[in-house]
Write a structure and sequence with these properties.
Radius of gyration: 33 Å
Number of helices: 36
Largest sheet: 7 strands, parallel
CATH topology of one domain: Serine Threonine Protein Phosphatase 5, Tetratricopeptide repeat
CATH superfamily of one domain: Tetratricopeptide repeat domain
Strand content: under 5%
Number of strands: 10
Structural class: mainly alpha
Shape: elongated
Length: 842
């Protein structure tokens, strides 16, 4: 079996070229330690992993070499080539843990295609659970068992090694406690590293430093740099004024450990006569100390007038930084970073370190447009923001903290834009709590965090919760900021958008109609926010079935978009595409096709033939061809589009799956029912594997297959499929979800086709009140259900009930579609026929 090696963790040295040739290394593990790994603990770890069911937990205080031990074992696994999967993730924070696991899931093809890192991490666990193939997954520096536990595979051939300073993590598996060096190991290390033969002096140094490997490394670096012997080093270590660590649970260090690290820092910062170099060493150390302990990419660091690598080299010589073998990143041990941060003991120093770190990352804050998404780079910047936050600056530097909160807001927006919604929600909740603690719950920063929270709920499909959050936020914005504040206006607009997403289109339209005059008065008719609100109103008209009003508004809006944004701006292109889509929904097919045919070359020229928006436009044109009865052209376009989507977006991207589903649907409408059924039957397992069995797209595909069975005359298959689909939808989504309502309508329709009218009426009688309760009596889908129930009554000879329902439906349909609409004319004809039938019965 070819070994597939997945190593994740920025800033650590790439695996040396010791892996078998068949193994593909796509990430990094820590470099060999500056000291050495004793054979005894390495042998203990090997035996523990071999004997454990799944998990071994290596515990011990910082600086004893837990990460180095796990890395040495990982290199052994790579050398012997026995593991088909090797994964390494930093588990210190929820963010870095999810980043690492989702990267492995992405490499294995089991990630969430929408970008949610928690979904990806859980899907990776499911993939590994019960998988017999051998593998190794390392969770390095786990800080809380409750963070790691949900992602540990069960009964798997993949063994798990966890390293942690937290003793309670030992309950996650078979414990292996790693202590400090023995005195003999300490002396052996110092003899080699410091190149001194005074074993008695080495023993004294080891005694002072508690035999802690990290401290001994710092001591050797200082001795070598200063060219001194052990007695001279001990004298420096004993100098007064070198404070000890603030005591933390699980970090019982001798006070001299802090002194050894601080002495190494002082030595590195001692002037050498090269003033330009001397001035930036301190700057670099303080910067890295404020950033993510998982590592800092080289290109993120200042250039220092072309001397960046030289500055890094000086810090590496002092054992204060570790440089990756490919020189792409640097890592600072957490204890060293802690000493540097604690050295900033005045408010001015704290503010200076915070500003310095924010200045560094500010140019790299995020472009949230689809074209600007760089998932891994963005995740690393968010890791740095989280690390700066964890430095916990005091309330006395509020101006700097406000700046940090702005960066955290941008991180939240990036996570939402990347659809990493689980991490985004967690990030926003923590940010909001910190803002309320530092600035108060009514500070504008708190309102921004609450807005991000509501927006994230909407993006996650939790629209009811988003509406609740927006409604309360709107009241507070109006009270605190005023009714005319831009933040208040945006909150009103986003609330309307959530109403629309929830199917509450009448409320959305009312809110947009109230909002537009305020936008025009406060911001101006040509302000981008005003134009976007007008487009949203047109979209809501369309969603409410008010197609003619939507078309009128889009037609009025387009010249304004072209004038304000320009004819080639993405907003203008999207407005043209919305107009084409509304033409198609209004059955004005010739106009829709003409507009799409004009629009597609513009998308190809402006954004490129491979841009996702171009692909969507091609798919929309194919869909319009199909609805216009031009099925040959639709099939040809879909058959060209599917391989392009697979090449550009990937075979597992949601757009690719949707395009395959649309092709199957068009096969069915073209009478190629066997082809449609075959394609649906291939597609459903892919949807279930990639999106999940309960995902709306999966349910839609299953519903389409049921209709295809029906069209092919396979009524028993169709009825069974509709029944199972309804049961699954009710269980997964609830009885009032729109997809459940569609499944209920589908079952009723198949009963009608099978001439089981009584069964159809039973289902319709459940469906109509649910639609009225969820969407309102005048929603297009509700009126369709009411119409279908009336038709079923008529077919069953229950003429009086049919007439009553037709008569109550008619004014609602006239109001929604206009008295001359084809659907209204058809309803009048049904009503007349029912009345005629009733008279004959009487």
């Amino acid at each position: 079996m070819t070994a597939e090696t997945i190593i994740v963790g920025l800033g650590q040295a790439p695996v040396p070229p010791i892996a078998p040739a068949a193994t593909r290394v796509v990430g990094m593990v820590p470099p060999p330690p500056a000291g050495f790994i004793s054979r005894a603990p390495l042998g203990r770890l090997r035996r523990a992993v071999r004997q454990s069911e799944v998990v071994v937990v290596v515990t011990g205080m910082r600086g004893v070499g837990k990460t180095e031990l796990a890395a040495a074992y990982t290199r052994d696994v790579l050398t012997d080539g026995t593991a088909g999967l090797v994964g390494w993730v930093d588990a210190e924070t929820r963010g870095t843990l999810l980043d690492g696991l989702s990267a492995i899931a992405r490499r294995l093809g089991v990630h969430d295609p929408h970008g949610d890192s928690e979904v990806s991490a859980r899907q990776l666990r499911e993939f590994l659970t019960g998988r017999p193939d051998s593998g190794l997954l390392v969770f390095d520096n786990a800080m809380a068992p409750e963070l790691v536990k949900p992602f540990i595979p069960a009964a798997s051939g993949t063994k798990v090694v966890i390293t942690s300073t937290q003793r309670d993590c030992a309950a996650l598996g078979d414990p292996l406690d790693l202590g400090v060096y023995t005195r003999r190991e300490s002396v052996r290390y110092l003899r080699k590293a410091a190149q001194l033969t005074d074993d008695a002096g080495a023993g004294q140094v080891a005694e002072e430093l508690g035999d802690l490997p990290l401290a001994l490394t710092q001591a050797a670096a200082t001795i070598n740099h200063l060219g001194i012997d052990y007695p001279a080093y001990l004298a420096l270590l004993a100098e007064p004024g070198r404070q000890a660590f603030t005591r933390m649970q699980g970090h019982e260090y001798p006070s001299q450990v802090h002194r050894a690290i601080l002495l190494s820092i002082d030595t590195a910062e001692t002037p050498t006569g090269d003033r330009d170099l001397d001035t930036v060493v301190r700057d670099l150390l303080e910067l890295v100390a404020m950033l993510s302990p998982t590592g800092v990419a080289r290109e993120l660091l200042p250039d220092y007038g072309g001397r960046r690598d030289e500055v890094v080299g000086r810090c590496v010589q002092a054992s204060l930084l570790t440089r990756s073998a490919d020189r792409t990143a640097v890592v600072m041990h957490r204890l060293v970073a802690r000493v540097l941060r604690e050295r900033a003991d005045t408010d001015d120093d704290v503010a200076r370190l915070l500003d310095k770190a924010l200045d560094l990352i500010a140019p790299h804050l995020f472009d949230t447009s689809p074209a600007g998404m760089r998932w891994l780079a963005a995740a690393r910047i968010i890791d740095h923001i989280d690390a700066i936050t964890a430095a916990q600056p005091t309330d006395r530097v509020l101006d700097n903290i406000r700046r940090l909160f702005e960066a955290r807001h941008q991180a939240a927006r990036q996570l939402i834009a990347a659809a990493d919604l689980a991490r985004g929600l967690d990030h926003i909740h923590r940010t909001l709590a910190d803002i309320e603690n530092h600035l108060g719950g009514e500070h504008p920063q708190a309102l921004t965090a609450r807005h991000n929270l509501a927006f994230a709920h909407h993006a996650a499909g939790r629209v009811a919760e988003a509406i609740d959050l927006y409604e309360q936020l709107l009241l507070d914005c109006e009270r605190i900021l005023g009714a005319e504040s831009p933040r208040t206006l945006i909150t009103r607009r986003n609330l309307a958008s959530s109403y629309h997403a929830a199917g509450r289109t009448a409320e959305a339209i009312d809110l947009y109609q109230q909002l537009l005059p305020d936008y025009e008065r406060i911001l101006g008719a040509d302000h981008p926010e005003t134009l976007i609100a007008r487009r949203n109103l047109a979209y809501s008209y369309e969603g409410a079935g008010r197609k003619s009003e939507a078309i009128d508004l889009y037609q009025q809006l387009l010249p304004d978009y072209e004038r304000v944004f320009g004819a080639e701006h993405p907003h203008t292109l999207l407005t043209r595409r919305n107009l084409a889509s509304t033409y198609q929904g209004a059955r004005r097919m010739a106009e829709a096709i003409e507009l799409y045919q004009q629009l597609l070359p513009d998308y190809e020229r402006i954004l490129g033939a491979d841009h996702p928006e171009t692909l969507i436009t091609r798919r929309n044109l194919a869909y319009t061809y199909q609805n216009a009865g031009r099925k040959t052209q639709a099939i040809a376009l879909y058959e060209e589009l599917v391989p392009d989507c697979e090449r550009i977006l990937g075979a597992e991207h949601p757009h690719t799956l949707t395009t395959r589903r649309n092709l199957a649907y068009t096969y069915e409408k073209a009478g190629r029912r066997a082809d449609a059924i075959a394609l649906y039957e291939q597609l459903i397992p892919d949807c279930e594997r990639i999106l999940g069995a309960e995902h709306p797209h999966t349910l839609t595909t299953r519903r389409n297959l049921a209709y295809a069975y029906q069209a092919a005359g396979r009524m028993a298959n169709a009825i069974d499929s509709h029944r199972q689909l309804l049961a699954d939808s009710e269980r997964a989504l609830g009885s009032e979800h729109r997809h459940t309502l569609k499944a209920r309508r589908g079952l009723a329709q198949i009963y009608e086709k099978a001439e089981r009218i009584a069964d159809a009426i039973d289902v319709y009688e459940q469906l109509v009140p649910e639609c009225e309760r969820v969407m309102g009596a005048r929603h297009p889908e509700t009126m369709t259900a009411r119409h279908s129930l009336a038709d079923a009554y008529a077919a069953a000879g229950r003429t009086a009930e049919a007439i009553d329902l037709y008569e109550r439906l008619l004014p609602d349909l006239e109001r929604a579609s206009g008295k001359e609409a084809d659907s209204v004319q058809a309803l009048r004809e049904r009503l007349a026929a029912a009345r005629d039938q009733g008279e004959r019965v009487l």
